[in-house]
Amino acid sequence: MTTMQVIALNVAIPLLVAVVTAVVTVRLSLRRFRSERWWEMKARAYTRVIRDLHRLSWLGTGESMLRPIKWGATPGVLRELNEASITAFLGLAEATHTGAFLLSEDAVKALWELVSALPKKGSLAEKGLNSDQLALITDCIARVRASALSDLGV
Question: Chain-centre distance of CA 149, in angstroms?
Fold first, then answer.
């Protein structure tokens, strides 16, 4: 082998190793980044669902602020409470329709059961929810929380 060939091999082999190492490192880093971002999206989705379930539960109880008519509350307060209940319900409906894209099958099933049992018309601020519906929300919170812990690996 000539001196030029030895120099070429001494340069080519480390260069080839460096390129392969760089490619593998970048691919693994991107995979990890995507998996972390996916985990964060799932965590945000579960957090929103649990928050909306909690709000719906709170808004559905007659003891919270839901019977403000007895207190002589203004129509503005009633409107705000009604909008909050609609926002919570729409958030749950969105999560239900998103389905297993972000949430586990068990969480989606719990949400479907709940959404189908809740009243579709009327203001929670005026009517509240009955004890069976509140129990369904509480059960749904527990099921979604268990699914989130399992799905997120925490």
Answer: 12
Q: How many CB atoms lie within 10 A of CB 25?
A: 10
**Alpha helix segments (H runs only) across the chain:** 3-60, 75-98, 105-117, 124-127, 131-152
pTM, two decimals, is 0.70
Non-local (6+) Cβ contacts of 69 within 8 A are 78, 126
**Is 32 inside any structural domain?**
no
CA–CA gap between residue 122 and residue 102 (Å, rounded): 30
> 133 vs 41, 47, 69, 108, CA distance in Å?
29, 21, 22, 17
Please say whether the beta carbons of 92 and 115 come within 8 A. Answer: yes
Retrieve residue 93's tokens: 């409906």
Q: What is the number of domains present in the chain? A: 1
pLDDT in tens, the chain (154 residues): 788 877 877 888 888 888 888 888 888 887 887 778 888 989 999 999 999 998 888 776 655 554 555 556 666 766 777 787 788 888 888 888 887 788 889 999 999 888 888 776 655 545 667 788 888 899 999 999 999 999 888 7
Only one residue has tokens 């268990």, namely 146
Domain that holds residue 43: 38-152
